[in-house]
Amino acid sequence: MILGDNWFTQTMLINTLSRNETLRSQLVPASSKNDHLFATVLSQLMKQKEIQMTVPQQIHSFVPNFDNVLPPSIYNSSIPLNNNEPLRFQSINAEKLNQVLEGKLNGMGDAFIGAGKRFNINPALLAAIAQHESGNGKSRAANEKNNIAGMMGATGLKSYSKVEDSIMDMARNLSKNYLGLGLSNIAKIGAKYAPIHAKNDPTGLNNHWVAGVTKYFEGLEGDKV
Fold first, then answer.
1. Strands 156-157 and 152-153
2. 120 and 156 belong to one structural domain
3. Which residues constitute the domain of residue 27?
4. pLDDT tens-digit map of 85-105
């Protein structure tokens, strides 16, 4: 760190005075040695005091102002989620959503929106998957198990105490295991969610998953407010 020419000059001057005093003490009579020594010590003390007062000011002047260097975002620990992706949370009107939901899905607009907000998923995607998986709320799994998303457990289709729990579980699963892993469109999600030729799909329903979910999703997107 550069402290300035003034500090360097003063330091060299002190060293020079010290060497000169040593040489002078060898040449002058003994009677005047104490006078010269006292004058030299006093001079050095004064110089040191001046340096101590100067150096901290110069050091301070060279401390960079990081407030003008670092971007403002570095100070913001609460970075907002990127909602520009179409499958991330988007605003949708619950009443219009309810107009197309039937069977066990009837009146679940607010539940889809709430789950979407919690897990940063477009409610239209959640509703579209539920519509396709449950025959728009009329499937046996929906009626008997409140399972509207085809969610599987260790022993087969999961059972839920209420439809809202099934919606929330679907949103959690999609957030963690699909969107969270970079599967950013319906086709990519479908390849994992409902893989073609899966052993638990003997009738080949998974062949229609991507097209069916896409149809429902695009219909709901067109009704957004």
1. antiparallel
2. yes
3. 5-68
4. 889 999 999 999 999 999 999
Same domain, 120 and 209: yes
pTM of the model: 0.63
Could you give the angle at which helices 5-27 and 30-61 cross, rounded to 10 degrees?
A: 170
Cβ proximity of 127 and 220 under 8 Å: yes
In sequence order, the 6+-apart residues with CB closer than 8 A to the CB of 34 are: none
Instruction: Please say whether the beta carbons of 116 and 175 come within 8 A.
Output: no
* pLDDT at residue 199 is higher than 80: yes
Give the separation between CA 190 and CA 211, rounded to whole angstroms.
9
Q: Which of 23-27, 85-89, 165-169 has the lowest mean pLDDT?
A: 23-27
* pLDDT score of 192: 95
Integer Cα distance of 204 and 195 in angstroms? 10
- Helices 123-134 and 209-222 meet at what angle, rounded to 10? 130
